[in-house]
């Protein structure tokens, strides 16, 4: 009889070996065909640097440029990844995350075939493909610890610019481009900053990964000046996120903070004295509760925005989302298995047939409902599987890195905390579907995938070395 533990281990790809999978895969045998070419290539020694520069350009441009331009650069990432892959050794860089990402892409492609609006869904598939091209190249390049640190530093510097401009909007005032506050609330005329992104909720979603990675940077960077820069990034990101007045963003950063705190406790637990091993976490939780409760009592904007979460339909924003969700649920019931196909264009063409009167929307205002609409129960199950494997492998990597106090473990902790934060924010907003945030989302997943691939490569090399020792001895 198969035990539940063995089933779970299989679902989490326990014992997955990239080398064995590569040897058994017909498609993966194409990998390595370019090895003879790279020996004569002048550019090959600089390919990782060139690829990292290409990825960095995307994150530098994401908050400021058009979707079309970013899409072109992402597709270039796909071409670059293909060159690197065909020159690699079979199995190198392959992870369970890659397998599930490919599975989700295949489901999305099938959903296009069954979509009632095939051309619109094909456009959405193209956007998804572009994002996955970015993921593939980033996951390949970030196996190099040097490029991991450099790329994350570039991303954080761009985030510092975006957050600083948001703080300037708070100080100088800025025109409110839409009715983002409940007109009946005492905060109806309050300023909500949006920096270069044009929407406070989108800015909040952008700042969540920046907060997670800047917390990691504060720990990883060793010298005082880099640490001071990391601390500045954390403060700017948190302050700017606060001034967005995004309730989803606030909940996200609370979830992020709790996750990062728990991972830090796990990371440093063996090094703590016995007293702090027992009491550090309860004391940290108590301090967090006291500070949170004090903020709710003393800071009026926090109190009013927090109370509005529980106001139900009495809050105009809540009422709008509830009505949109009702229409979206009807869409899901109409096509529950494989959905209507990926992308906002497909959504915009189908939603008017199911919407409540006067409640037009460009998305489902929930990543979970959006995935169910686009790819049905099949795609939603695959995405949950992908998330579970990503988080599970991430925690596994933190355990491994803790044994040697490798700094990559801290980056993974920040990535995992940011992933949790975006998943919380995604409950009430479609935060994955705008390039400034979607690129960061796939970077977070790529960080986990890249470090799993790097750790697995070291493990495979160690196994081969141990297997060769008896032969050498004889």
In short:
Helix content is 73%, strand content 0%. The chain is mainly alpha-helical and 474 residues long. It starts with a helix and ends with a helix.
Task: List the main descriptive attributes of the protein structure presented here.
474 residues, mainly alpha
Radius of gyration, taken over Cα atoms and rounded to an integer in Å: 23 Å
SS-based class: mainly alpha
Total helical elements: 18
Oligomer: single chain
Number of strands: 0
Main sheet summary: none
Write down the secondary-structure element order. Answer: HHHHHHHHHHHHHHHHHH
Identify low-pLDDT runs. none
Rounded mean pLDDT score: 87
Shape: globular
Terminal CA distance reads: 42 Å
Membrane topology: Multi-pass membrane protein
Organism: Synechocystis sp. (strain ATCC 27184 / PCC 6803 / Kazusa)
Keywords: Membrane, Transmembrane, Transmembrane helix
Protein name: Slr1515 protein
């Amino acid at each position: 009889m198969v035990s539940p533990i063995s089933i779970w281990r299989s679902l989490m790809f326990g014992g997955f070996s990239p080398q064995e999978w590569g040897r058994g895969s017909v498609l993966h045998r194409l990998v390595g065909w370019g090895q003879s070419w790279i020996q004569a290539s002048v550019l090959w020694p600089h390919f990782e640097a060139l690829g990292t520069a290409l990825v960095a350009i995307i994150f530098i441009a994401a908050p400021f440029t058009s979707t079309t331009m970013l899409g072109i650069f992402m597709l270039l990432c796909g071409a670059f990844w293909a060159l690197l892959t065909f020159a690699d050794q079979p199995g190198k860089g392959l992870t369970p995350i890659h397998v599930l990402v490919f599975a989700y892409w295949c489901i999305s492609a099938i959903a296009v075939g069954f979509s009632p609006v095939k051309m619109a869904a094909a456009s959405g598939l193209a956007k998804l493909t572009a994002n996955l091209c970015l993921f593939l190249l980033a996951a390949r390049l970030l196996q190099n610890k040097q490029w991991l640190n450099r790329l994350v530093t570039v991303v954080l510097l761009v985030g510092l610019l975006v957050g600083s401009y948001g703080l300037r909007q708070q100080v100088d005032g800025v025109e409110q481009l839409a009715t983002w506050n409940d007109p009946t609330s005492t905060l109806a005329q309050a300023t909500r900053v949006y920096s270069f992104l044009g929407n406070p909720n989108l800015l909040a979603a952008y700042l969540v990964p920046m907060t997670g990675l800047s917390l990691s940077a504060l720990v990883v960077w060793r010298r005082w000046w880099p640490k001071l820069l990391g601390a500045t990034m954390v403060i700017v990101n948190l302050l700017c996120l606060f001034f967005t007045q995004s309730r989803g963003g606030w909940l996200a950063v609370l979830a992020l903070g709790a996750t990062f705190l728990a991972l830090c406790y796990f990371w440093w637990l063996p090094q703590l004295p016995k007293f702090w091993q027992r009491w550090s976490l309860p004391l940290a939780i108590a301090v967090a509760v006291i500070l949170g409760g004090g903020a709710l009592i003393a800071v009026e904007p926090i109190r009013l925005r927090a109370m509005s979460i529980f106001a139900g339909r009495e809050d105009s924003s809540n009422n709008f989302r509830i009505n949109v969700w009702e229409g979206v649920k009807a869409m899901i019931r109409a096509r529950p298995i494989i959905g209507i196909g990926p992308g906002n264009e497909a959504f915009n063409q189908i939603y008017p047939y199911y919407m409540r009167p006067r409640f037009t929307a460009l998305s489902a205002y929930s990543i979970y409902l959006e995935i169910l609409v686009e790819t049905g129960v099949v795609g939603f199950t695959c995405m949950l599987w992908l998330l579970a494997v990503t988080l599970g492998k991430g925690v596994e990597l933190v355990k491994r890195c803790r044994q040697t106090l490798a700094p990559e473990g801290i980056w993974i902790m920040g990535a995992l905390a940011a992933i949790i934060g975006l998943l919380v924010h995604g409950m009430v907003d479609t935060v994955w579907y705008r390039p400034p945030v979607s690129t960061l989302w796939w970077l977070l997943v790529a960080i986990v995938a890249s470090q799993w691939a790097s750790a697995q490569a070291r493990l495979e090399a160690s196994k081969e070395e141990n297997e060769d020792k008896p032969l050498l001895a004889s």
